[in-house]
Amino acid sequence: MTDKQWNSLVKFGVSDPDDYLTEGPQIMLTGGPLRAVATRAILFFNGQQPIKRLVPVKPETVPEHLEQLEEWWGIQAGDDAWQVLADLHHTGHRARFQPRLAQNPGYWREQFDRHEFLRGRPVESVAAWDFCRIVNVAYWTRAAGLPDDATAFSYFDIGTKLALARFRSWEDMAVRFLAGRAVWNADDDEGHEHMGNIVEYLLEDEEDVWGQCAWAEYP
């Protein structure tokens, strides 16, 4: 890791926030807001999106972000973002995935055991796949200029409180997130390994956001 990457990791929580205006206006996150945003830390690392500060997207990358939001989520405007967030809150993938686990637990146990981090770990829920993505979509759409700050922060809060009510620790949430991802795309072995490595890092590094934010300490 270069000095620049290390400094970015310390300041922003990720090593290569290249799509963001890291020298521009920023909202420093501490306390409750940092704890809330940490709910989606796995996805921050995967997308190299600043986690310790809210930083604007570079203007030249906004069109690409908007294209990805439309392609992956069908989001073209603020109302679309609101609808997607509401769906993740109230229904999400868990409404379809949870019955699949109940109907064929042996099959899914075999699928989970293919992935090093999930191997042997009990999985009774995949709801974290939705809860983490609530915070993720709120962050991502806010960065692209769609919902206002009040809406985005309200969904940071919603996703975090749902996870706190259902899970016992960062590790417990991570297991359920990775299991949900495995049900969503069982064949993406490379992606599952990459995400598992991110989880291992977040659980082990006391200086990063999960190490700095106690699981239960949230207003």
Describe the structure.
- The protein has 12 helices and 2 strands; from the N terminus they run H-E-H-H-E-H-H-H-H-H-H-H-H-H.
- It has 219 residues and is mainly alpha-helical.
- The protein has one domain.
- Helix 10 packs antiparallel against helix 11 (189-204).
- 40% of the residues are buried.
In the sheet with the most strands, the strands line up as 1-2
Poorly predicted spans = none
The figure for the number of domains is 1
Question: Kindly state the mean pLDDT as a whole number?
Answer: 92
N/C terminus separation: 36 Å
By secondary-structure content and strand pairing, the structural class works out as mainly alpha
Q: Can you tell me the overall shape? A: globular
Supply Rg: 17 Å
Give the helices and strands as they follow along the chain. HEHHEHHHHHHHHH
As a percent range, the share of strand residues is: under 5%
Topology:
Blueprint lengths: L2 H10 L14 E2 L2 H7 L3 H7 L5 E2 L7 H12 L4 H13 L3 H10 L1 H9 L14 H16 L5 H18 L3 H15 L4 H16 L4 H4 L7
Antiparallel strand pairs: 1-2
Helix pairs in contact: 2-9, 3-11, 5-8, 8-9, 8-10, 10-11
